[in-house]
Design a protein that fits this description.
2 copies of one chain form a homodimer. In chain A, about 40% of the residues lie in helices and about 25% in strands. The first copy, chain A, is of the alpha/beta class. The first copy, chain A, has one domain: Alpha/Beta hydrolase fold, catalytic domain (Rossmann fold). A 9-stranded mixed β-sheet of chain A has the order 1-2-3-5-4-6-7-8-9, with helices on both faces. In chain A, strand 1 and strand 2 form a beta hairpin. Chains A and B meet through helix 6, strand 9 and helix 7 of A and helix 6, strand 9 and helix 7 of B. Strand 9 of chain A pairs antiparallel with strand 9 of chain B.
Chain lengths: ~240, ~240
């Protein structure tokens, strides 16, 4: 893990860009830590530069509550080498959703390889981040891509709680995977999300095997998550990570 | 409105029993109010005596957050004269649910007359409560019976926000009524509620016409609402009533 630049944000938050091999990431910590902080991994749909305004808002709110926050770029996104097959699947999905056509096959083609490629990278980032002196544990995962969060919740024992944003399609085969999730979950669903299948999200919520799961559904589209859900997520992690 | 007894609870909460005609009720206020408090009406399934432990817990939490709280007995429940037809419908519903038989006709027979009888009484209680010097406004409704909350949200303009507990059957005809609800709503759903129809609750949530609606679904049965939903309800009312 190699830090490339660092900035001091005006609320005492230290923001550091890093490279892990060729995977870029960002780490946010407080400048005034007295003890190693629990860590929240911030998930996103890919494209750190475009997602930065939303990510830094969430990161600042995490740091204000005593957590460290970190994220890494997804394979084939942002400044990383594109994948022609993923780009094609993404375009196919957009077309199919607009035309109201079935998407299952396209979702499998797009999301399963993404999950298979991204999850080991997030786990590698976790190794490197937990080796830093200012980061302790436990660890939470918060955000999208839904399917990445599901896989991480199943395979990564260092993740103790997850806030999953049901804002992306999940391959139907992963419903079985969801049954094996046993950590506390908070699932955010935008009720009128134009980029998602509401019934699929509800089926997935039903499938999660954990005994502690909560669904927060709010009116509005994909990007309309109400501000109060930020505080609500922090309280969820405070209950389970501190 | 006639106060019959009053008790000082140990956390500075004043609990007063009252009669409004022959309808018993309870009012909880702080002993140290400096200004008239916004009011939260606490809904319940009927039977104040049996419900008292849960109601007083919720009331204390409301008062601690600066609200007054009040409730009234439902028609045909607790110490009020029984209704033979309601008792019969209640027994029929229990049998039908246990046998997995359709319940729509029984729900209509049980819930519609209850809503028609109860809602004017809650509105009468509101008249009397808002005339007291220590209660101001605005007003929220919190709890069950779901159908009573829906009707109140539609017909009672003094209610500014409602937290509805989706723990009871709602007549299908009331879905149309739900479309007319325009106040902010927080709907609590116990995902594994043995006394309720989950799909019906989700359909009703979908139908609500208000632009500000949130669903909180949690694992567990009818009486298993997690303690953190109490704080969450208080924050909802703080956003909309203060």
């Amino acid at each position: 893990m190699r830090f490339t630049t660092q900035r001091r944000l005006d609320d005492g938050v230290l923001e550091r860009d890093f490279l892990l091999g060729d995977v870029p990431g960002i780490l946010w910590t407080t400048e005034s830590a007295s003890a190693p902080a629990p860590l929240i991994l911030l998930g996103h749909p890919g494209g750190l530069r475009a997602m930065y305004p939303r990510l830094v808002t969430r990161a600042r709110s995490c740091v204000a509550e005593g957590f460290a926050a970190a994220t890494v770029e997804l394979p084939g996104c942002g400044d990383r080498p594109r994948s022609a097959t993923a780009d094609e699947a993404r375009a196919d999905l957009r077309r199919a959703v607009r035309a109201g056509e079935p998407v299952d096959e396209i979702v499998d083609r797009l999301v399963l390889p993404l999950v298979d490629a991204a999850v080991p990278e997030w786990r590698g980032a976790l190794d490197a981040l937990l080796a830093l002196p200012d980061i302790g544990g436990p660890v939470g995962y918060a955000g999208g891509v839904m399917a990445i969060g599901v896989r991480l919740a199943v395979v990564e024992p260092r993740i103790s709680a997850a806030l999953l944003f049901a804002g992306s399609f999940v391959p139907r085969s992963m419903v079985e995977e969801a049954r094996r999730v046993s950590i506390p979950l908070l699932v955010l669903l935008q009720w009128d999300d134009e980029d998602n299948d509401r019934q699929m999200a509800l089926d997935l919520f039903d499938a999660f095997g954990t005994r502690q799961k909560t669904l927060h559904a709010n009116t509005g589209g994909h990007t309309g998550v109400p501000a109060f859900e930020g505080e609500s997520g922090n309280r969820f992690f405070a209950r389970h990570l501190t």
